[in-house]
Backbone:
């Protein structure tokens, strides 16, 4: 599990609002009260606004997901054709390189595969 930072990250929309309020002459204290932001974080948001290309978040490098949206769409089509297809066959026919456990996790996340005891799900 990745380490959590104590630093809050505000959405690009909120950063844009803060920047516009600063340009209109609002004081840091008033901007903080209006936007539910810590007053000490406002100068940093304003100074980084231009370097972040109008307040957008910067690219974060890291490991790409094993199943991207294109793979998932293909899997959903395979499941629509055969609802009782096994995870091993999904990997085989979908041309995936992930493990069956990773695929099961992704299907549960998207509500395709029920989790828990099968007797607890109504038929």
Residues:
């Amino acid at each position: 599990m990745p380490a959590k930072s104590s630093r809050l990250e505000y959405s690009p929309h909120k950063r844009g609002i803060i920047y516009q309020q600063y340009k209109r002459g609002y004081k840091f204290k008033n901007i903080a009260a209006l936007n539910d932001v810590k007053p000490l974080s406002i100068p940093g948001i304003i100074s980084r606004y231009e370097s972040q290309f109008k307040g957008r978040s910067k690219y974060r490098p890291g490991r790409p997901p094993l199943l991207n949206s294109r793979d998932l769409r293909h899997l959903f089509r395979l499941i629509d054709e055969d609802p009782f297809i096994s995870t091993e066959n999904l990997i085989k026919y979908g041309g995936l390189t992930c493990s069956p456990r990773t695929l099961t996790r992704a299907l549960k996340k998207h509500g395709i595969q029920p989790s828990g005891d099968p007797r607890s799900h109504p038929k």
About this structure: The first helix runs from residue 12 to 23. The helical segments are 12-23, 28-35, 42-49, 69-81, 87-94, 100-109.
